[in-house]
């Protein structure tokens, strides 16, 4: 029988991926040609098993990660700046160096996850746990700054690594609702982080440690203990999934293969990584993600302060943040479920951006009405978390799989976090409680996010139309070797269609 197949002409200018080895994440031998219908009952059983094994441990790790990332703000309130004799912009530097490291090391850290497997996430976590402990025991400002930078370096690969791992197990129209569940740990942590730190401050003076030190020390102990357990619970990549039966694994790999955009274990080298990093899709999504991150970071850092400035006590302000995050949790998960059901992303990012714009507009317009201002926070929180979770998955599913997806996730979550730079500098203390600059910048970023996703979907629609036209008008015959190279094109394969 001839080894040739019929396909469309290779897209002009596309360079095939460099093949590293015959090892593949393709389906087992013979399964790639299996055209028998998938048993829906077996598929549902597999999905239930994956949902139980893949998501919960990552959710809990993200919860702990968020506590570690944001505890410096609680330590400041508990007296850290006075104990370390911090002056001028010392605190801002300590906050900023974390984000700098997060941006710089996002891609390299995620490539390590790709190369060495998901268990390295637990190793990252143990290392940053040690650095959280270092923050609690340091006696100098320079020691604190050094620990924060190194902590950002180890945390940089966590969220993109988790996104990449989840995406390896699910089809494109199943991915968002699972990632949204994982991402909801962010909202849970935002709701209870302040209250948890308040409880830890009651240890003030115990063991010769001050309240702010106990915040770091206790959260460091929790982080390191959790990381040791997680090392054995984090699932491997699908091709190494020993928790599945042979039949379940075969079904999983077939689903992954049929979902499209698949590549084999393509080689990691600097030239290819730099070429992948120039993809316009990544950077337009970075802009949209940055816009949502600016809003989310504003909430985390300043929502309790804003509520306190409006007349609530510190404890009451912390309690009032819980309904905001709880509402965002429900709306984000509902949006994710509906988006997966409809297999559509763009209109949900429009919805999120409109919520952000409305929310910040309320904050700007009603400067002396605590109840109305509180309502505005519900809008901005829902919009920010909808867009952050949706954009990660939307980009992830539109860059194929393999190294390209790894690079894209590292850039998106790394550079997207530059929104935190903005939020940390626009809420000016002297403008409390009206914060016209902070609210105005948030509103502007909501508009930027809306424009970015609109440009993104416009180009995707054009590319899909071009591929439809080429596929309908031009065909040629490829031999088997050429077809194998075509498989390694990922989303550049002419049969691939971008998710809108």
Automatic annotation (TrEMBL):
SUPFAM superfamilies on file: MFS general substrate transporter
Subcellular localization(s) per the UniProt record: Membrane
Lineage of source species: Eukaryota, Fungi, Dikarya, Ascomycota, Pezizomycotina
Keywords associated with the record: Membrane, Transmembrane, Transmembrane helix, Transport
Transmembrane residue ranges: 50-67, 93-113, 120-137, 143-167, 179-200, 212-235, 280-302, 322-339, 346-366, 372-395, 407-428, 440-461
Protein name per the record: Vitamin H transporter, putative
GO MF entries: transmembrane transporter activity
Residue span of region Disordered: 1-32
Membrane topology: Multi-pass membrane protein
Alphabetical list of Gene3D superfamilies matching this protein: MFS general substrate transporter like domains (1.20.1250.20)
Residue ranges constituting the Major facilitator superfamily (MFS) profile domain according to the UniProt record: 54-465
Primary localization: membrane
InterPro entries cross-referenced by the UniProt entry: MFS, MFS_dom, MFS_trans_sf
Pfam (any one): MFS_1
GO cellular component: membrane
């Amino acid at each position: 029988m001839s080894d040739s197949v019929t396909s469309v002409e290779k897209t002009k200018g596309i360079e095939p991926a460099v093949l590293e080895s015959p090892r593949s994440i393709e389906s087992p031998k013979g399964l790639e040609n299996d055209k028998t219908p998938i048993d829906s009952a077996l598929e549902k059983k597999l999905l239930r098993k994956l949902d139980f094994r893949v998501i919960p441990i990552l959710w809990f790790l993200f919860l702990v990660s968020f506590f570690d990332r944001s505890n410096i703000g609680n330590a400041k309130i508990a007296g850290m700046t006075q104990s370390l004799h911090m002056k001028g912009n010392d605190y801002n530097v300590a906050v900023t160096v974390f984000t700098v490291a997060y941006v710089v090391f996002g891609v390299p850290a995620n490539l390590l996850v790709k190369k060495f497997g998901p268990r390295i996430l637990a190793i990252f976590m143990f290392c940053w746990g040690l650095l959280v402990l270092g923050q609690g025991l340091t006696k100098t400002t320079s020691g604190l700054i050094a620990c924060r930078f190194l902590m950002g370096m180890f945390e940089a690969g966590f969220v993109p690594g988790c996104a990449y791992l989840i995406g390896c197990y699910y089809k494109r129209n199943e991915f968002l609702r699972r990632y949204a569940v994982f991402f909801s740990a962010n909202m849970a942590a935002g709701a209870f982080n302040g209250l948890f730190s308040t409880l830890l401050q009651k240890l003030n003076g115990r063991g010769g440690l001050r309240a702010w030190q106990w915040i770091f020390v206790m959260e460091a102990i929790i982080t390191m203990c959790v990381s040791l357990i997680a090392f054995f619970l984090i699932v491997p990549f699908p091709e190494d999934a020993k928790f599945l039966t042979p039949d379940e694994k075969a079904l999983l790999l077939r689903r992954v293969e049929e979902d499209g955009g698949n590549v084999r274990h393509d080689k990691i080298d600097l030239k290819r990584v730099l070429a992948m990093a120039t993809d316009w899709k990544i950077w337009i999504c970075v802009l949209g993600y940055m816009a949502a991150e600016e809003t989310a970071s504003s909430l985390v850092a300043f929502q309790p302060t804003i509520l306190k400035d409006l007349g609530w006590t510190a404890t009451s302000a912390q309690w009032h943040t819980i309904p905001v995050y709880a509402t965002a949790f429900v709306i984000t998960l509902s949006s994710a479920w509906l988006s997966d059901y409809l297999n559509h992303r763009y209109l949900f990012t429009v919805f999120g951006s409109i919520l952000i714009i409305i929310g910040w507009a309320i904050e700007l317009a009603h400067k002396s009405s605590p109840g109305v201002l509180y309502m505005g926070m519900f809008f901005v929180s829902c919009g920010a978390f909808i867009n952050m979770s949706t954009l990660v998955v939307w980009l992830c599913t539109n860059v194929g799989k393999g190294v390209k997806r790894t690079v894209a996730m590292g850039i998106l979550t790394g550079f997207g976090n530059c929104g935190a730079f903005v939020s940390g500098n626009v809420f000016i203390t002297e403008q409390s409680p009206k914060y016209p600059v902070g609210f105005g910048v948030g509103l502007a970023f909501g508009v930027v996010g809306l424009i970015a996703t609109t440009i993104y979907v416009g180009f995707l629609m054009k590319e899909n139309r071009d591929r439809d036209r080429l596929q309908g008008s031009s065909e040629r015959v490829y031999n088997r070797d050429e077809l194998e190279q075509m498989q390694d094109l990922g989303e550049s394969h002419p049969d691939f269609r971008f998710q809108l």
